[in-house]
Design brief:
disordered N terminus, six-stranded mixed beta sheet, Deoxyribonuclease I, Chain A, 2 domains, 36% helix, alpha+beta, 12 strands
Length: 362
């Protein structure tokens, strides 16, 4: 009898141990962290050397060094802008990033937007801005800049929607109007595609939150994404005490904002599907070559996110997601359309310049 009780006790203890282990593992899976980096890699052809006779820049070598640098970071998700004609040098130097969006070509065919990841990417979609301004003078109409969207896997069954953008540049009135509509278009795309999923937006916004006092596009950025959609800015949350109105500490420091504080490289984020996101670390980084020269005219933005799964979290299955495939025939027709569209814009602008010159002389 004693032996029977002893055996039953051992079996009961074993059963309890087996039941505890999965609970412990599950508890660990209820939270975790992942890292992201955003970088304008300045992969445009050297137009200065082409048209102005300046010394030619070795962009191919620069992109190779950028690729090697990014490959060594250990970052989970990397979003880039201006990844144009030298993409092959960047990709070859980044073997650690086995998941990446399909490159859509150099100027004038591609948007310059790509995502490089150590995690799987799904539901990839690109959308060109419906409003851009500036062809020869500002260059925003020379390429189909816009939005790149992907659903990213941050853990098993845990997904977020990731958006990479390159907003209209410069501070002219027309550029500001274009940028405002860029943000409207982005918000519409999020409403259409993301549903209840958590959302992270990064990219080159070409405007900052602290500009909202004097730039209407900066004010619109804050009003639309922060105030209306309830998103948070990773730099503001981690470095500015969560204040979206008081930047006096930084404005009085004498240090320019570009690449240093509340810069145009941003990470905006919000919760969804029972997944709570917190930005726990943020850093602007200036990557340099062996001679100490900056590899881009932009600094990179690095962020670490912590995620926590709440009671209303619902695990998703990737079986319902789409995997991006190369579509050479479709891309051929898209490139042809883009080429003639850009050619038409160029001829139109040249004709306008010819008309304006005689008028200026009168």
């Amino acid at each position: 009898m004693k032996n029977t009780v002893k055996i039953l006790s051992i079996l009961l203890a074993a059963l309890l141990l087996c039941s505890v282990v999965p609970l412990s593992a599950s508890a660990k899976a209820d939270s975790g962290s992942f890292s992201m980096l955003n970088y304008n890699v300045a992969g445009l052809p050297d137009f200065g050397a082409m048209f102005n006779g300046t010394e030619k820049m070795d962009v191919a070598t620069k992109e190779k060094v950028i690729g090697e640098t990014l490959n060594a970071t250990g970052i989970d998700f990397i979003a880039v802008q201006e990844d144009f004609n030298f993409n092959r040098y960047l990709v070859k130097a980044m073997p650690n990033y086995t998941y990446r969006t399909v490159h859509h070509g150099g100027v004038p065919f591609g948007s310059g937007l790509n995502i490089y990841s150590t995690h799987k990417l799904y539901n990839v979609e690109r959308e060109e801005w419906r409003t851009r301004y500036g062809l020869f003078d500002e260059g925003d109409e020379l390429t189909p800049k816009g939005i790149l969207h992907a659903t990213i896997e941050i853990a098993d069954g845990v997904y977020a929607d990731f958006y990479d953008i390159h907003a209209d540049a410069y501070d002219t009135e027309e550029s500001r109007k274009a940028r405002i509509d860029n943000f409207n278009q982005l918000a519409e795309m999020i409403a259409r595609r993301s549903g209840d999923r958590p959302v992270i937006i990064t990219g080159d916004f070409n405007i900052s939150v602290h500009h909202s006092g004097w730039d209407p596009s900066g004010a619109h950025l804050k009003e639309l994404f922060i105030d209306k959609l309830g998103m948070k800015d990773a730099w503001i949350e981690t470095k500015n005490g969560g204040s979206y109105t008081d930047f006096s500490r930084w404005t009085q420091s004498g240090v320019g904002y570009w690449g240093n504080w509340d810069s145009v490289e941003k990470f905006l984020y919000k919760d969804g599907n029972g997944i709570h996101l917190d930005a726990t670390d943020f850093e602007y980084v200036c990557y340099k070559d062996s001679d100490g020269n900056a590899l881009s005219d932009h600094n990179a933005a690095k962020v670490v996110f912590k995620y926590t799964l709440g009671e209303n979290f619902r695990a998703e299955s990737a079986s319902s997601f789409q995997v991006e495939k190369r579509q050479p025939i479709k891309r051929f027709f898209e490139k042809t359309q883009t080429f003639f569209k850009t050619l038409f814009l160029c001829l139109k602008n040249i004709a306008l310049l010819k008309v304006q010159k005689p008028l200026m002389g009168q």
